[in-house]
Input
Amino acid sequence: MTDQMMISRYFSQSQLKGLLKAGDIILPGTQASPSFSATGCIHHMDRMAKYLSEDDLNGLRMVFAAFRWMPKWKIKLILKLCNHSSRLPSFMGAGLRMLEIGLKGAILSPYYANLTAPGYDGKKVYDVIGWHPKMVVNEDGIPVKQTPVNLDTPTPEDVAEIYQRAKKAGPEIRDWGVKKRLEFISNLKAAILANQEYILDRLQADTKKSRFDAITAEIFGTLDFLDYLEKNAVKFLSDRKVPTPFALMGKKSKVYFEPLGTALLISPWNYPFYQAIVPIAQAFVVGNAVVFKPSSDTPLKGLVEALLAQAGFLPGWVQIVYGQGRTIGNLLVDGRPDKIFLIGSQPVGKAIMERASQYLIPVELELGGKDPMVVFEDVNIERAAAGAIWGAFTTTGQSCTSVERLFVHEEIYERFKETLVKETLKLVQATDEDGNADIGPMTTKAQVKAIAAQVADAKEKGAVFLTGGDWDGKSDFVPPMVVEGVTKDMLMDQEENFGPLLPLYSFTSEAQAIEMANDPEYGLSASVWSQDLKRADRVARMIYTGNVSINNVMLTEGNHALPFGGVGKSGFGRYKGEFGFYAFANIKAILIDQNSAKMEANWFPYTAKKYQIFSDLTRALYSPGRILPLIRGAFYGLKLETYVKKLAKKGRE
Amino acid sequence: MATEQFRIFDFIFVGAGISGPFMANDLVKEGADCLMLEAGKAYTRRTYPTNGLDGTSQMYWSGGLELGHDAKIAFLRPKVVGGGSIVNQALVDRFDADAWDSWRSVSKVADFSVDKMAPWYDRAESEIEIQEIPAHFRNKNAEIFDQGFKNLKFDNAPLRRAQSNCRLEEGNCCIECLNGCRLGSKQSTPETVLKTALENGLTLVPEIEVTHISEHKGDIRVTGLDPRGGQVSYRARNLVLGAGAIGNARLLLNSGFEKKLPHIGKGFFCHPQFMSFGVYEEKINSHLGAFQAFKSDDKGFRKEGFKLENVYAGPEGIALLVPGFGKIHHEYMERLPHFACIEVCTRDTNPGQIRVNRKGKALIRKVQNREDLNRYEKGAKVIDDIFKSTGAKQIVHGRFGIGLHLMGCCAMGTDPATSVIDPEFKLHGYKNIFSADSSIFPNAPGINPSLTIMALSKKAAASILRNR
Ligand SMILES: Cc1cc2nc3c(=O)[nH]c(=O)nc-3n(C[C@H](O)[C@H](O)[C@H](O)COP(=O)(O)OP(=O)(O)OC[C@H]3O[C@@H](n4cnc5c(N)ncnc54)[C@H](O)[C@@H]3O)c2cc1C
Ligand code: SF4
Output
């Protein structure tokens, strides 16, 4: 992977570039010595900057910023002048000496402290200058080092340490502020782009999905989300003013969006990259430390850490913990994160929620679905059929929002079926390296088994397999199966299939379509297809679900400004979009009053007279009408205030 | 929001450097209820920084070097629990008759004499261990120093250091001594008097920068800044200023004391020190072994107003001192193992002054006049001769001077017009504000100050106890 990128709490990107330029003029490197930039010691600037006085820091910022666009010869000229500062008149000499000492101090100190960027394997400065003092120390002089924790199937002690670190990281992340946190997100974007092919290789190795599915859903989708964060996070996370009602005149009301602390994020195996980066990034941007657990089926081991490190994230900020959910899930909950966010299956959701309830940890669950697609008679059949095929079979059907039930109006049922079958048979299923396959094999053995059970059950009960009927029930290459005649008693109708199975049903009326589409259990997403947008909208409103695409499929997820989440047993809470920020935020209400001698009307003492005025005020303010209540309200408000003042002075009569 | 601490202490100490802990130790022993506030952090043997970058940025005010108005001298002002005793070279010397006589003549303080101070030195020395660096641990840098002195027929003497066991026999090389001693050998105040003071009930609060003090009818109020946010304030019957020369001056000026005491901030001295490097054909490896062993002990030098010391520094420091940039700079630094180093320390005569700006920041004005420059030049000339006589191929003079011995600004004296502290260690005109730290020096003694600060602090504590 390529070089790590640098973000500083104290310097902007352009100031850092100026520093790097000056650094390489002062320390260009020789045969023996590495250059300033080569060592990456610039990564340690904040260690020094943290302690500088505001004035010195501003001075350095100015100098670095000026160097950013100054030609090298000019910088060299200035440095030469510095060399001769003693011969210049004192007012000039002093300035140049300050510049020289400040600049050289900033550049030479990290370099000669032998500091390097993580992963640097070039020559060490201490070796070049022969600096190897031997220090004999006793036990109590050995610097405190962080004890390594095992992130791979951690023990309870490890988990305690993991949360300890997250707790320490919390204030650090919070201190950066939203804008600076977004610089890390920009870096992450760049790191993903720079390593795209490598990420795709890793993704295919773990998930076996087609390269095209991988690049669209996992790379493009992820980058698009990060882009959304960059453009919107500041807006949604800034302090907000909210109106203060008449009765609280003179006061101000505000809402702050603060981090919750540590977020535990648990993701499934179907989109292991997207479902890692997206929740991590959203939780981080709000200011939370993150503990992330990927699925043990598709851990992408080390990949996300490496990308985060390259983007400048410190190890404690986002910790990635590996292991089987069964063994470490409870442990991670017991560590008492401040929020749990889970994408996964119903049983896992239940288990986590139950455990979390012991500590009253808020959870947000994105569980499975059994998503309907409703096709009316007035559609373009080719397009709708192609949409159905993609919606049902993309990523070999292993999406929570893939089409699992297809309802087609009886008028076009036969023609639709014909196109559907014809086009499905054209799908190329293979393990590809070049993007030339439509779908890959299944990701997990367990899922192959689950599908085999549904298929066997359906066959036994008389369902007709229009495609894929020849599957042996064992191969990972589960073919796309279009199935007709699926009835209520079949597993295929009852359970989420999470594979390339597409049961096809016909309906006669709008009302029947709605009834059929409304699953008694799930409600994650749906799609409605019709030329008549009014009808489509009517149906969309009537389906009890979290997300609906009209004349398209699985597309609400394509817009990162839209929230995502389900109803019923598909889970609750919303993530992504504006509402996604709130999933990880402590939304704090602030009311500001002035310090004064004034007493509030609703404070003690209570008197019968005050009661009377207050009741008049209430009636006046909230009686129907617009202007009159205000005038009357003002009258009684004034009366109340005068009385309260009197009470304060004289007390109860 | 101000958090008013309602406990009223007998003494509040500002600064946990050398003087504060020495005084507090004697006062708590007699039952005084003492609070010590220190702007710096408390480190332990396990948490001392281990490289120059972290050491300098974490343990000094302003994150390292502070510059005066002409930027010719860089000042290092410790900010850490233990103050200078954590980061200094731990060289401890008694003042000679020359130093005391000159103090007495400017201050009119009768007790400033070798005889009168001797018992206080004895008592100070009894609190710490002091060792000479034995001959067989001298490194090559020290040998060059010694050889040069012999060649040129000057007198030198082994250094006395406040240390207990540097384990040199095990091959220890302690160039990181200047970031705090991880062995616990250096006799810093946290390893000695501060430790016993804490055991005897001293309350120490690190990371509080005192910003304002006031006195009203015997009641002292101290306000400080808590880095975790907000102000804190404390009350006491007495106040001891131990924030060092610049620290005390800044605090008194920011608290409006200069109206009564116009001399505050004046009379600032710093023993400007200049390092020179001799570059030899062979490797010197000045950073190995005991990095200091000798000082000059020459009557002639003393008269001329300078002394020479056998020293060294970390690579971050040396890199700043060698001239040039680019290839030239690399060429110097790549030959670092061939460097020997000698420092000239001048006894400055031209007083500087500390002022504060509107933000309350200390501004340093310190000019080396012709006399002071002469002193430096004479010393530098001797260094050149030493290097030449021992075969150096090249001599490099450091780019700027360093001020480590920050002294004065609240000089002791009998006359409130020309001094700040009276002979009883009290702020002129106040019964309950004291100081005995480096700020009370009436001029530059030309000798390492810390042992004398310890002795004066013991004397001050005794004087307070006597008058109670
Ligand atoms: C690198 C170096 C090497 C030295 N080598 C030697 C040597 O070998 N021998 C020698 O004798 N001397 C040496 N000195 C000098 C010696 O260390 C000082 O003269 C001595 O420490 C001064 O003691 P002090 O108690 O007056 O002040 P300090 O030790 O400076 O302590 C003052 C303390 O007060 C604190 N303070 C200041 N302002 C405030 C405030 N507003 N609020 C709270 N706290 C505050 C500071 O943070 C500091 O910790 C050296 C100094 C340095 C820097
Ligand atoms: S042991 Fe090393 S660090 Fe400690 S005082 Fe001795 S020389 Fe300094």
Observations:
- Residues 59-79+132-182+271-403 of chain B form one domain.
- Chain B is about 30% helix and 20% strand.
- The CA atoms of residues 156 and 297 of chain B lie 4 Å apart.
